[in-house]
Amino acid sequence: MERTAKELADHIDAQLEGDGKLCISGCASPESAGPHDIIFVDSAKHLEAAARSKAGCVVLPPGTGALAELPGKTILRAKDPKLAFARIVAWMIPAQPIAQGIHKTAIVATSAKLAEGVGVGPYVVIEEGVHIAAGTQIGAHCFIGRDSHIGLECKLYPRVTLYQGVRLGARVIVHSGCVIGSDGFGFVPSENGFVKFPQIGTVEVGDDVEIGANTTIDRGALDATRVARGVKLDNLVQIGHNSQVGEHSAISAQAGLAGSTFIGRNVMLGGQVGIAGHGRIEDGAQLAPQSGVPAGKIIRAGTIMFGSPARPIEKAKVIIALMGRLPDLVEKIRRLEEKVFQNAG
Amino acid sequence: MERTAKELADHIDAQLEGDGKLCISGCASPESAGPHDIIFVDSAKHLEAAARSKAGCVVLPPGTGALAELPGKTILRAKDPKLAFARIVAWMIPAQPIAQGIHKTAIVATSAKLAEGVGVGPYVVIEEGVHIAAGTQIGAHCFIGRDSHIGLECKLYPRVTLYQGVRLGARVIVHSGCVIGSDGFGFVPSENGFVKFPQIGTVEVGDDVEIGANTTIDRGALDATRVARGVKLDNLVQIGHNSQVGEHSAISAQAGLAGSTFIGRNVMLGGQVGIAGHGRIEDGAQLAPQSGVPAGKIIRAGTIMFGSPARPIEKAKVIIALMGRLPDLVEKIRRLEEKVFQNAG
Amino acid sequence: MERTAKELADHIDAQLEGDGKLCISGCASPESAGPHDIIFVDSAKHLEAAARSKAGCVVLPPGTGALAELPGKTILRAKDPKLAFARIVAWMIPAQPIAQGIHKTAIVATSAKLAEGVGVGPYVVIEEGVHIAAGTQIGAHCFIGRDSHIGLECKLYPRVTLYQGVRLGARVIVHSGCVIGSDGFGFVPSENGFVKFPQIGTVEVGDDVEIGANTTIDRGALDATRVARGVKLDNLVQIGHNSQVGEHSAISAQAGLAGSTFIGRNVMLGGQVGIAGHGRIEDGAQLAPQSGVPAGKIIRAGTIMFGSPARPIEKAKVIIALMGRLPDLVEKIRRLEEKVFQNAG
Description:
homotrimer, alpha/beta, Udp-n-acetylmuramoylalanyl-d-glutamate--2,6- Diaminopimelate Ligase, Chain: A, domain 1, UDP N-Acetylglucosamine Acyltransferase, domain 1, eleven-stranded mixed β-sheet, ten-stranded parallel β-sheet, 40 strands, 29% strand
């Protein structure tokens, strides 16, 4: 799709500086952009990269980079350039459909109800009692277990598995390889080894959730595992049974929640973070990558933590620095002992 | 399925207190139970939750919670209430079949031998020389590589991959997305980069093993990777080539065994634990979440360890606490030096 | 396939000692070998295992193990026995084909171009505009998104997903469950929660790369995520968007690269290593298992690091040892204080 700089400015409600008739046909990074591409810069420190770029058009924050500093370029001023740029990309480069119509190889159970306009790709299997709302696209090789409900305008990329009775809200995006609703890891020790504790709960995923590739979300043992609206899960994340993830929280790749963990709203978990069973992360807390929260521990709202076990990040940094000084401290103690106990001797 | 409290008591060999004719139709948690649901409580501290619950029937341990404390409820006394409850759930809510009969879209090689009663779902591919024993169910989109053997009454959920020559025992449960028998990570450095060390071993999985979603088990390089009977693997676990996991051990989500690790019997590995190559974890040892065992290290039988590298957990806790006191220790040393060397000066 | 010891010696250009007519029909480990198997030993410390082995033929390094020490065995002398053995295995036990011909159930878009000799397994879906070069094999249930390019003689095991526009070089091996080209984890906070930053870049994988089971490689946000030639990725690895992995680097299982990380050439990352966003690991650096590199940090060429955060391994080992002595240090300080401030009092 081609747009003029003026059209783009109007679309994102930005102020235009320079040539509004400039034709823009692509969205790019400063390094790879050509004269008909648009780029963005979100702070003054990247301004030079923008100036060096061949891009014809730049989205800039107010007060950063005058037209004279960017000769030959057209500027769109937006309060949040990254957000504005994201909207431009979404407008100019609409996502390719995952599936359109019901592919003739899709196996759809007779009692499944698919709204109009639902797309179902090749070799999809949809079991009895499934409901899929309008506008949703189901990629090739997906498996939708019986009695699952999928909301409006969801996108399931190829090869997603929903076990029975899973519920997805509207506009949920699920990437390839995800497994939602698998049995939780629940066993009871007995004289003859572990006995499986039946996992008869379910999974409820709210609106506008995105779930990365090969991520797994276990069903609750008796109740529901819940991922609230707006949550973003990266790739290879594990959500244990009965866990609750609050609205607009973000969990980075390879992080894992054991069973019955509680994650509040607007929480951020870095990559490879682990929360042991019954941990509780309150609203707005953040855990730096690889941090660990022991079983049953509470992380207070708004705190930023690091380490395994996690400590307040400022304290963790001091401790890490002092660990580096341990050899020096040991030597200091040795010298003190030499002095003190020799004197005393 | 509906049962009377008396029937349930008989089924689990429990002592009945209260109304044996009470009709039970569901199994629930205390929070979500209704009057025809059964719940369980495994210790006195959850007794109040049971009392508050709307559940009609409660499984309780001996000596905890008299009928008078739980007005209107029927009690089943069982030595291990969780285990008893698990048996009730398994009886009342039988698992839905994964596949029944051979679906017409399944591709089964002519030399594959499927016993009577084997269920094979849509779009399954079963290669030459495969043996599948009676009562086993193979979910949609599974791929069973040539010459693999699958024992009695196994359940492979949709989309499991077995590379060639993998052997599963009886009653093995494999969740969606698992890959069993993929090549181990074996390469030999050469002048022209890495040369692949062919991975021509296999994988042997014992009876009553359960394997979580998206878990990977590599085949041995020359011999077999072995997962002994009764082992439980959670989601996203990695079992490296040539590793051996002993009977009734349990490995939590995102834990990983590098190549040639040895895990004894009744070992417990927490989430995100990592065992480096040739590590050895003896019988009954436990590693807390995120612990790490360096290459070739031995963890002695029955010890409980924590940290990376792992230390005995009691020692690890002391060290963690003292790390928090490092700033204080540094200050103490500074004051000592001031005093001692000033005096000496 | 059967070969004489002499034929094997000629194939790997090794010196033969003993019976060149010995018939070899298998490749094995010392423990499981029989009289017609060949084994290898790469150092003197495993020589005794070779002597005890029933193997008829042993690949040994020069100067280790005379014929008299290994009675009845035939020896092949090779400078790098493991490499020589790998070549023998590859010669004697050729890998089974993943797919031959185009299976009748494969769905291949009309504009897709498949070179001669391409094998496509059952239930594969190949979208519009895909190019697949000669000799490549695509296993069952694979999904090849539109406009993807796959080079010569690649092997995609069953159930691999390539999103649109992914490029694989020649001789790339991709194991089951891999997802290549999924959206990166890019979101812009807004008043209404996260807004998706469109991920319109791609993934480029070089020649001779091998990618383990269930590994995920995200597409770049605007440019390409790149995995250079000769790289080996183990299972369950995460490569975040815009990351670059240099030639002949090896990344072990469950390691993860956040977005925009840079990995140089010949880098080795142990299992469960995590590199936070914009980290930079220079040529030849090594990170021990579970190590972590904070956001934006640089690890210098050739260094070996351990810990989270990673330190030079020798320093890390000293610190770990001293952490074990913390209780002792605290006691020393207490005794010093007692002495010093009592004396002073």
